[in-house]
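Hi there, hope your week has been kind to you so far. Would you mind checking whether the tokens look sensible for this chain? I owe you a coffee for this, so here goes:
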Amino acid sequence: MRDELVFYTNPMSRGRIARWMLEETGVPYKTEIMTFGGTIKSPEYLAVNPMGKVPAIRHGKTVVTECAAICAYLADTFQEAGLAPKPDERGSYYRWMFFTAGPLEAAVTNKALGFETPPDKARMAGYGSYADVMNTLERAVSASPYVTGDRFTAADVYVGSHIGWGMGIGTLEKRQAFADYLGRVTDRPAYKRAVAIDDEAMKAAQ
């Protein structure tokens, strides 16, 4: 008997990334909707994630926070879903997963907040410049159908989610390569199920 898998989320958050990943695994899970300014800062939830942020998962006695970590954990734990990389794919898998969690997230957030890295200080920023990040991401999603090659993996859930979110709210440049990649990775039953579940949860919350 498998340990219970509990998913803490809010449909208006990065929890949508983890929801997609959970649906890709096909394993049963229990959802706990956390409210902003309410249960998300409760002592009970802070014991799960002291940051008071979502998403998080609890799998038996194991707690995982941070979307990239959740995606990687679920891929490794439920290998029957085929979302973990093959040995020769691990370099690209880790590379683009962490590139997205680090340089991409930082560059996009800083730009949205109105902060541009001064050219003479670019070496101090882990991502260099926003333009560097956009060009690198474009090459990553153009080299092959998926970021690890010809097979969809958990890295595509994570990278694809960031591209979809960024293009949707205007923090990511709308390049054709991004749109083409996004079309490939979101044309999946699990993605469509996840979106429908979260959209319904948003309606219920309102």
Notes: DSSP finds eight helices and four strands in the chain. Helices lie at 15-25, 43-46, 67-77, 90-112, 130-142, 154-169, 176-186, 189-205. Residues 94 and 155 are 8 Å apart (CA to CA). The domain at 87-188 is CATH 1.20.1050.10 (Glutathione S-transferase Yfyf (Class Pi); Chain A, domain 2).
